Amino acid sequence: MSVEKYASMSIEEVTEELGTSLERGLSEEEAQRRLKEYGYNEIPEKEEPLWHRIARRFWGPIPWMIEAAAILSALVGRWEDFTIIMVMLFVNAGVDFWQEHKALSALKVLKEKLARKALVLRDGKWKLVDARFLVPGDVIKLKIGDIVPADVKLDHGGEYILVDQSALTGESLPVTKKPGDVAYANSIVKKGEMIGIVIATGLKTYFGKTVQLVARAEREERSHFQQMVIKIGNFLIMLTIILIGIMVAVELSRGANPFELLEFSLVLTVAAIPVALPAVLTITMAVGALYLAKKKVIVSKLSSIEELAGVDVLCSDKTGTLTMNKMTIADPYVVKGYKVEDLMLFAALASKEENRDPIEIPIFEWLKKRGLYNELKECKQLKFVPFDPVRKRTEAIVKCKGKKMFVTKGAPQVIIDMVNKEEIDEEEVLKKVEEFAQNGFRTLAVAMKELLEEELHLVGLIPLFDPPRPDSKEAIEDAKKFGVEVKMVTGDNVAIAKYIAKILGIGDKIISMREIKRGEEEYVILAEVIAKALLRVAEGLSPAEAERKAKEIAEMVKKELEGRPLLPGIVRAHEDEIARIIEEANGFAEVFPEDKYLIVEKIQERGHIVGMTGDGVNDAPALKKADCGIAVSNATDAARAAADMVLLTPGLRVIIDGFKVARQIFKRMESYAIYRIAETIRVLFFMTLSILIFQFYPITTIMIILLALLNDIPILTIAYDNVEIPQRPVRWIYGELEMLSFWLGTAGVLSSFTLFYLLMTYWMLPKDLIQTIMFTKLIVAGHFTIFNTRTKDWFWKKPWPSRALYFATQGTSFLGTVVGVYGLGLMTPMGWGWAAFIWGYAFVWFLFNDAVKKTFLKLYRRNTKI
């Protein structure tokens, strides 16, 4: 049956049609049977066939060049070259396939860890299951922040829910859904909670049908680093084409064999262009993302790692991240005429026990310990409106002992504004709230009235203490050591925020967001006053006459403002001043979710890379705005969807550990990029210079192929290298990366050309032996270069290379040496004497390159003040 048909039916008809019960839901056995019948509740992703993934490795500009070189080798009868070129083609394809497979596997694991959950009623019990296991007929609960997991016929549990379905219909404003309406899959619950019946899943949902009708092509946005690498890669490709074009033109003018020259040029182009660069970066990020997952940090996309590595300001929620989110109740304040038992009972009636809200749990526990829980159960909750961050309170209509009552609990300032002030000593109540706050207690105010009464009565105040996590102070100190400033963000008042900040060592500069917003409101007041003045002066006047009256307008504005209560300090602050104040603050109190966006925006304006934590649906805009949005453990679906980073465990320590690991991943990518660019410069310029000056190919086509294979395969282990954690947030310093690569590449050209010159003019060895020696030198020296680029410090300092990197590079260097020593039918044997000389020569230049690196970095950073 269609969703439209279900939408027109009553809830009783839907229940009967789907064979379910609103009281017990489906049985587990029936749910499993329906899962087999209807399939998983998901939109199947179109997977690329295996044969297509394999075939793709042989189609494209680089494979075409290799294939063309192989064909040319066959045409001129050079079957040894043909065989080696084909080996290169298949090895390149295999390595590329393996890299993609590894990255896809990593993304699959991350996706599974980010799977949405749904609260479903099975066999009369509520349980949390993966949303993909929902079936038609399941009874589920929707609450604020949930992404609706399927098409749901709403029934009870609330008066209405407010749903954002802009992703489906394009409507910019949230839509009110009442009992009997249908909430569509992939819409977001912005307010309220309700129970309903699943009527469609997967491709049968409204969203699923839309996906079938519209071809969607989602492409992951490239990170800054990936864009930079592509830019440099394109430059190197152009450089390669130009230099090889010059070489080909000169050689043709000298009468070279066109077929052999074209074959050589194609192979040299493939070897020179850093074709593996994007793939190696992807595998490095994928391996790093899996390691982050083991640390209970899930990145939503691989490119998020760069943002994590660069964060220098972290705005952290207090509750649950810096504190335990496990409340304990101190001695309450009770208004005259009520008892403590009344206060706790009314607070429980304005709560929902099954929601397991950390603020409400100790209230129910208090009643149970004192034998009052049965009295609570004698009351019936007729209507419940859950807490939302804007209203800052819950409310319920209940029936107790035949009486209907309205009860509410929430932030003291909100509840006190609602109650009858004549019944209380407002000054005393506010003083008590402040006293609780100064001792670190969060306060809940509770009020009630009989349903027919007009006035609401304050019952009392419940002080709750949320202790800091044992590791929070240490984590904050650790963050400071690594260049990350932690700013506390809380909805509590300034006194509570200062108390917790003092315990944790965050700092005492805590500002109220209410004061910040009042500062903005001052501009509104001023604008209104100016508008009034303009209307008075300019009405009926020409623009020229109005302009002449400018001074008069200014005087009128000044008089209008006289006598207005202007708050000191911040209220007159300019936008830049507000940004400065926010930047210098250690924390923010009285924060609403929408305030987080302003905090992020202003800190970014001051040039910082900002991380922001969040858990609610209203936090989503700030999480998207932040350079690194962090959804804390147990965050809503909406917050998780907006975040770059999702935590699977609570606390600040896991965030700081995530930043550290991201920096290590970043450094691995950077070291490989420098290495590969330097190698391209080294090989390309050396080959071109040698051919133009000496009219001789310093290495053969087969040697170029072997060089490319022996260089690219072991370097994949860079993803597993040991890297020191940078003490400061890391960002791409384009000039430094490009120039360091250039100087190391230039040193490599000098090293290779010096040896080639000596072999040709001083020792005057046979040309075939010279080619073998140069081949071996390029292999050994190339692998030494990675040990120059893997650290910005001297190569011998810790952390030392990983075993994988060390043995892979040295093993292939030794393999290349063995080929050079014995020839193996591929080249002229050179013997172990020359092999020993080459290793010694390469090592001396390796030491020189390390000195070049250190000298360059010292001078560059001094001149650029890095």
From TrEMBL:
CDD domains xref list: P-type_ATPase_H
Protein's membrane topology: Multi-pass membrane protein
SUPFAM superfamilies the record matches: Calcium ATPase, transduction domain A, Calcium ATPase, transmembrane domain M, HAD-like
Residues annotated as domain Cation-transporting P-type ATPase N-terminal: 5-78
GO molecular-function term, one example from the UniProt record: ATP hydrolysis activity
Parts of the chain that traverse the membrane: 232-252, 264-293, 673-693, 699-720, 740-763, 769-788, 804-825, 831-852
SMART domains: Cation_ATPase_N
Pfam family, one: Hydrolase
PROSITE patterns reported for this sequence: ATPASE_E1_E2
Location within or outside the cell: Membrane
GO biological process terms held by the UniProt record: proton export across plasma membrane
NCBIfam families listed in its UniProt record: ATPase-IIIA_H (TIGR01647), ATPase_P-type (TIGR01494)
Protein name per its UniProtKB record: Cation-transporting ATPase
Species of origin: Ignicoccus pacificus DSM 13166
